[in-house]
Amino acid sequence: MNESKCPVPREQQPTNEFIELSKSIIFSWPKTKKSLIIVLLKFWVCGFILFLIISSGSVYFEKSLLKYILLSFFSSLLIPLLISIRLYLGWNHVFKRLTSEKVEYEESGWYDGQIWEKPLVLKEKESLIAMIEVKPILKNLIQILSIILVLVLSGLLLFQYSNY
Fold first, then answer.
1. Using one digit for the tens of pLDDT, what is the confidence trace for 16-54?
2. What is the pLDDT of residues 52-89, one digit of tens each?
3. N or C: the chain end with fewer CB closer than 10 Å?
């Protein structure tokens, strides 16, 4: 954006927000689906081990080793689920800012919110960034969130209706 014509502070400009989010260590994970899956699997395995250790002290599970392992398996899915939700919310926020026709911003604090309408050239540029760069990331995150949610819900159903 041209600094002289744009009243929006540099750090609040959607293109710069996209660049900063892309540079972030955590938010750069979903740039490729494979790297995100590997990171989430690592968190899941660490969570699984942690949940095994935590639930090993339960008297309830002394009788059923299978329930003990399955509960740790499904409980540990909450860690990748929460990470995926956070990643989705961050990228979705930037996507909305890039595709909107107006930019909401604050010059000095929360009390002086302003709205600036983007010029046509900037709208097209940011819309292109949103569609080419951000939309595939959101699509991957939605797919991964769906898989994790199906696994978590199947675990809940398994425990709700199991008689072992």
1. 999 999 999 999 999 888 889 999 999 999 999 998 888
2. 888 877 766 677 778 788 888 988 999 999 999 999 99
3. C
Record the pTM. Answer: 0.86
Domain that holds residue 66: 33-107+114-160
Distances (CA, A) of 39 to 22, 75, 149: 16, 18, 17
Q: How many domains does the chain have?
A: 1
Collapsing DSSP to helix, strand or coil, 58 comes out as: coil
Long-range contacts of 77-80, Cβ-Cβ distance < 8 Å, separation of 24 or more: 77/44, 77/47, 77/148, 77/151, 77/152, 77/155, 78/47, 78/152, 79/43, 79/44, 79/46, 79/47, 80/40, 80/41, 80/43, 80/44, 80/47, 80/148
- Domain membership flag for residue 40: yes
